[in-house]
Design brief:
single chain; 296 residues; alpha+beta; Helix Hairpins; Elongation Factor Tu (Ef-tu), domain 3; 4 domains; six-stranded antiparallel barrel; three-stranded antiparallel β-sheet; 17 strands
């Protein structure tokens, strides 16, 4: 055992050495075979011009030397495999094995984490698929430190939408230079998406009829009926979709007595927030929980 839990190891650093007595003997035997084949071929070369050997014997000697060298490389590879090395730099975790244990290629040795950057994967609803693109930033808060908010940059998104849950997986990356976060931690993810700019009017300006909802605006001193569709509600105001202009004055009070085309005379000025259409952005937010993974 060449490491302890919590150690930082570098790429290629030995972690454990297995019993390699048989492999070392195999390397020595292969070296002997190479040496013997090389000596034999050397003798063949010295008497090659005398005609005492055929061309096929020379070729057989060359083949024997090449075969012996391949066997030596194979033995050296088997010996090298008896030392398990770190595949990349990172921190090692706990281990369940001790010196003298019997292990094989299915025995877990330890967990190796590269913690400089963590990946946080979270599910996002289908409606925001076009809003979460690589390079954009969401905010994540670790459950281990609720007072801390971290900017996480979107790395990529899954290639398809889940048929069952109608969401998709977003992968973000967060820096961990201070090494305060760990792979496997849970985070609260919050992102905000600005929607289309829509007119927002007081809720009492909406009139309901047999053909749906509409409101009245004042154009050229007359009441004009404008059909609208309510897209969202916000504390006494509604976002609407309809043929409205920024400069339109909206009739808010007494709308049940107003008729389309009726002449309107403004006798008392109101505040601009009551008379004119305001444009705001609809916003959608999501706050799912997510788990982090290391960037192995």
């Amino acid at each position: 055992m060449l490491f302890a839990a919590g150690d930082f190891v570098r790429n290629g650093q030995p972690l454990i050495r297995l019993d390699a007595r048989e492999e070392r003997l195999a390397v020595e035997a292969a070296r002997v075979q190479v040496r013997e084949a090389d000596q034999l071929l050397g003798r063949y070369r010295r008497i090659e011009d005398t005609g005492a050997l055929s061309e096929s014997q020379i070729e057989a000697g060359e083949t024997a030397l090449a075969s012996a060298r391949v066997a030596l490389e194979q033995a050296q590879t088997a010996l090298a495999d008896r030392t398990v090395r770190a595949p990349f730099s990172g921190h090692v975790g706990l281990t369940e094995i001790d010196t003298g244990d019997r292990v094989n290629d299915q025995t877990p040795i330890t967990q190796l984490d590269q913690r400089g950057t963590l990946f946080v994967d979270f599910p996002a609803p289908e409606a925001v698929f076009n809003a979460l693109r690589p390079g954009q930033v969401v905010q994540v808060t670790p459950f281990s430190d609720p007072s801390r908010t971290i900017d996480a940059r979107v790395v990529t998104t899954d290639s398809r939408i889940s048929q069952e849950s109608r969401d998709f997986i977003v992968r973000t990356a967060i820096p961990n230079k201070d090494d305060r976060l760990r792979p496997g931690m849970s985070f609260r993810v919050v992102f905000t998406r600005a929607g289309e700019a829509r007119p927002v009017v007081p809720e009492e300006a909406i009139v309901w009829g047999g053909e749906g909802s509409h409101l009245f605006v004042i154009r050229e001193s007359r009441a004009v009926r404008v059909p609208v569709t309510i897209t969202s509600r916000r504390e006494g105001s509604v976002f609407v979709d309809g043929a409205l202009r920024r400069s339109d004055r909206v009739i808010v009070e007494g709308v049940q007595k107003v008729r389309d085309g009726q002449e309107i005379r403004l006798v008392r000025g109101g505040g601009p927030d009551r008379q004119q259409v305001r444009l705001r952005n609809q916003e959608a937010s999501a706050a799912p929980s997510a788990s982090s993974t290391d960037d192995e």
